[in-house]
Amino acid sequence: MPPHQPPQPTPPPPPPPPFAAIASLDPDAMLATARAILEQSARLHDRLAATLTPETATFANLIRPLIDDANAAAAPLCMLGRLQAAASPHATVRAAAREVQKLADAAEDALFARADLAVLVAAVRRRVGLSSSSAAAAAALSSSGRGEDIGRGQECGPEERYLVEWLYGRFVRAGAVAAGDASVAARVCALRAEVRELCLAAVGALAEAEDGMWFTREELEGVPESGLSGLKMEKGGDTGGQSDRFWVPFRGAYDVNVLRDAVRPETRRKYDIASDRRFPENVGGLEKIIALRDEIARLLGYANHAGLAMEEKMSRSVDEVTSQLREIQQRLQPIHDLEIQRLQFLKLRHVSQQKGGRLDADDKKLYAWDWVFYASKQRAESYAIDAMKVAEYFEAAHTFARMLRVFERLFGLAFGEIETVTWHEDVRVYVVRDSESEGGAFLGYLYVELYNRPGKHQGDMHIPVQRGFVEASGLRHHPVSVLLCKFNRPAPAKPALLRYGQVITLFHELGHCIHNLVSRTKYGLPPPRDFVEIPSLVLEHWASVPEVLISLSKHYKGIKTGQTPDANRRIWDGTESESESLPRDLAESVARARSVNEAHIMLVMIHRALFDLTIHSPANHQAALEMDTTSLWNASQRDVVGVCVSEEPDEMSLAHGEFGHIFRKYDAGFFAYPMSAVWAADLFTHAFGDQPMDPEAGRSVSLTTRR
């Protein structure tokens, strides 16, 4: 027998990305750096077009250089653009970052508008066995084997075929393959530049808004004092009956939820209507965007923009998706009717007690601004759940650290925190590997910034700074994921506690990170929009497992220094006590309560998805030009969601003006959320059954995702 070989030391990971260097650039340097990257790419494109012909172009000398260059540019452009726009504390830097995004998008449009390169890609497409027939191409994509001339004798496998078809599709959808009309690509490029300007303006308005409303202390009856204490206040006069006033921002005050806590219905009504009407300029911009997108689609031979957008998705047609959404809506409607009846009963009982039984017509209706208030009461009464008491068991940093352990156990991963310079002192950095039992291979880097701060994106999001890919030389570049959250920052005597909904959100967004990090992609292509939400929605299901909730939890007073990644920054004064996890009976109640009003949550998503598809599939271009999105939004809300809204013309909802997804490349794609929720539920049930913490099932799901 050969002598026993000692275990080999784990090789060190490659250097982390230069986030600190990027963050140190001023706006002019950011733009200069981005232009230099894009100009280098443009020179490559010119050289390929000048030196290759349809007869000489191969996968190796055309496709490979194009994708390697795009992958090399992606990470620095993402750090300069999307990340800085979301994370920089400086408004001038965020504005410059949006300009970087504009430059990068314009350069991408210019690339795919090039007819000279399109001809070369089409030649390689034929050479590797992909015909002009979409059905034949789909069959070829699923097969392996060799193309006639992929270059250097390389095997033309499914990933190579998919890459060629993906690139060719981008040229087609840019107009570069339009038969006999070279002007189409130029017109499409110009129209897309207009769309880009309007979308970035809308995104900028959403990102930079710092608006809110003044309310008196009496109007905020029911809102906890702990929340009011963190708000800006104007002191009322000592005489004359003037009351203290509090400034309630529409976002950023996470301890204050007017719709959930304010007892007075008029307060909730005023807040809800004002919140929904914050961005009228975005509504006007959206209607221009719709007309421009429709013109582009018709120039390219599509019936509408939704049909064009469907080309890059797994779903086959707008009609198919719409039919599926309507079927889900119909199946959920009886359940939703019961949900509404239960909340109406709660409202009648509550208002009757307040008014001594004297009810008017409005008291018998369930309005949009009533839903959160009475749903919260329902959870408290039916499941004995005090949301703030539950939150005491989910301190943000501790919960995150425990969540990583869940993923380690399920998916055979290992997270090791390292010290490195980043864009902000709050950021924590993890080296992600396979576990030792799985070989210990390096997978990528995870950057996490949990706490809210001025200038930071006011949402929870995953940014895939780099997708994994392999260069032509064989060198693998590993994924880099950034997780940005907006959790309350710890303060003296005030730990950062997560409500249950935020725990679910953390599972979801961290799920996007894990999906990127474990993917063993060869060419770094993004997954289709209607697939990308499925892994994250699967992971949300673990927030409904009592054992998982218990494992994540610990009462914040029992968390001692050194037990969380943020322990050295812990600045609240909590009395230390014995370790205490969430009691099992409470964990079971929280898990059961998650399914309460779930039909309503799904129907809200379906309403948004149907609205998104409707505005992007007008019958003709004139209909796109004349579209009244406000009427469509409110009609869809009444039809699908079913709660009452104000009928006053100057109080109609303009919430589609802050529907950020349709400005951020999810246009005609929001259906991915409700559809993926259905697929994710099926996948979770099929893979895990009644054993949600089964590591073998977790490894199976992980391996499927990696492929």
Would you kindly provide a written description of the structure presented here, covering whatever features stand out?
- The protein is α+β, with helices and mostly antiparallel strands and 707 residues long.
- It has four domains: 19-177, Endopeptidase. Chain P, domain 1 (Glutathione S-transferase Yfyf (Class Pi), Chain A, domain 2, Up-down Bundle), CATH 1.20.1050; 212-276, no CATH class; 280-389 and 598-670, Neurolysin, domain 3, CATH 1.10.1370; 394-581, Collagenase (Catalytic Domain) (3-Layer(aba) Sandwich).
- 53% of the residues lie in helices and 8% in strands.
- The chain is built from 27 helices and ten strands.
- A five-stranded mixed sheet has the order 4-5-6-10-7, sandwiched between helices.
- α20 (534-540) packs across α26.
- The protein is globular, with a radius of gyration of 27 Å.
